[in-house]
Amino acid sequence: MIMQSQESLEMLVMVSRLLSSKLDISELLTTIMRLASRVVGAERASLYLLDEKAQELYFDVALGLPEDVQKMRFKLGEGVAGTCAKEGRSTIINDVASDPRHSKKADAKSGFITRSLLTCPMIIKGRAIGVVQAINKADGDFSETDKNNFEAFASQAAIAIENSRLFTSVKEEKRKMEIVFKRVREGAILTDVDGEIIILNDSAKTYLEHDKYNFTNVKAAFPDFTMTPGLDAAMSCEEVAFNFELYREKPKRFYLSGTVIKLFAEDKDGNSKVEGRLWILSDVTAQRLEERMARNFLSLISHKFKTPLASINGYSQILSEEAQSKGLPEIIKKSSETIGLQGRKLNALVESLLDFVTVDSLEPSSLEKMEFDAAQFLSEVAEGIRGMRKDAGAFTIKTAPAAGPVMLKADRKLLSSALTSLIDNAIKFNAGREKLVILSAQARDGGVLISVGDNGPGIPGEEIENIFQKFYQVEESFTGQVEGWGLGLSLVRKIASLHGGRVIVKSQLQKGSAFTMILPR
Hints:
A six-stranded antiparallel sheet has the order 3-2-1-6-5-4, sandwiched between helices. A six-stranded antiparallel sheet has the order 8-7-12-11-10-9. The longest helix has 42 residues, at 285-326. Helices cover 44% and strands 26% of the residues. By secondary structure, it is of the alpha+beta class. The chain has helices at 2-20, 25-40, 67-70, 79-87, 105-110, 144-183, 202-208, 210-213, 231-236, 285-326, 330-360, 374-388, 412-428, 476-479, 488-498; strands spanning 42-51, 56-61, 73-75, 91-93, 117-124, 127-137, 187-192, 197-200, 226-228, 241-248, 254-266, 272-283, 370-373, 395-399, 407-410, 435-444, 447-454, 502-508, 512-520. A hairpin with a 2-residue loop joins strand 5 (117-124) and strand 6 (127-137). The chain is built from 15 helices and 19 strands. The protein has four domains: 2-171, Beta-Lactamase (2-Layer Sandwich), CATH 3.30.450.40; 184-283, 2-Layer Sandwich (Beta-Lactamase), CATH 3.30.450.20; 302-360; 364-520, Heat Shock Protein 90, CATH 3.30.565.10.
């Protein structure tokens, strides 16, 4: 008896080693089938897996069985195997012919005569994933010792199957991810929290010359590039997504627009923690060069307009004064006034275009920053607007009181241009009788929030992503189109970006909008 127990133990140890070495599911199931009969000295074995969706058992591997038998399925509770899977308990039947639970379907189709059965469920985390059967004890009857050994074998088989499924699932997900990574045109880099590279696709390798530098951490991935904002800002950013740009001067100008996205995983307590980062790189060289050419063209054409406009405005004023003083015909008076009015409008458009071109070409290093109280600054801007916009009809600008000084270090001139543009929009796009603009400044979370709110028509939700584009204006039927280039909000976003900040918008139709510049203090 002791000798038999030792042999059984040695057999189970050998089985455990064999099963743990198999990760391919087909190879593993075939190995389980071959070992199952040897463990308890049976003539053959059967292995059923559970189709959880259909709640049926099926032969995944059927060694030596006819094809029509291999296709057979058993519902939970049907036959010995179905009952074993449903109840989750092992069964010994040494006289199958006298047991009503035995289904004779398989025997009838295969021609095999089943005399005795030892059936064990394969259980993982309290649920049956299948059933393993030993058929026809070669010498005598199946015993309780056989059942104990077979249950140990079934448990090891269940663990091996689950591990194999997990491995196959992970391998398949990795294969899918690699396919996606390889096929996307954008450069893609997957890193852990510390920046160690897990995967990078062919586009990223090409953009960053991986074959030349052979870097393994994203911190060493951009040796030839200037990154704006810097890598430290990208790694320490608290936002889920962070945008940046890479620029390389030589051997030719090359621009990459980048986004780094945090990837989260849940710990055992259900709390989310950062597990890694996904870096997406897009080649925007053509776009940036086109923008540069557009800036140069706009600057050139704006300067070319200045000289003829000065002549038009100057001579129209002289003509108007002459018509008034010498009593020239009424048509001359009206014509000179119209020419002067339209000339001044065109001059204002050219000036705004020149302002935009100038700001759009600035770099953060060129800002003339100084420290000042943002709340007091808002009052000064509001007063300037009141003096400048006397022809805009009735409007009210209010400055919300601040709890105390809101200190900010920024370029006052640029910030004034941005606020003036926001306030101008709030007035000219508001067709209501009582136009109200509210300015506010507050310190929050290490930054300064400067807001311009209004009681205008609001902005449709689908337009909010578009309004910051250059030369974009919401359609005339909604806004009652007014004169302008559609550059004001693009200018505001550029100024915020130059300061390392951003602009957010909240709007409700027929109630108004609020534009907030979030700037580092």
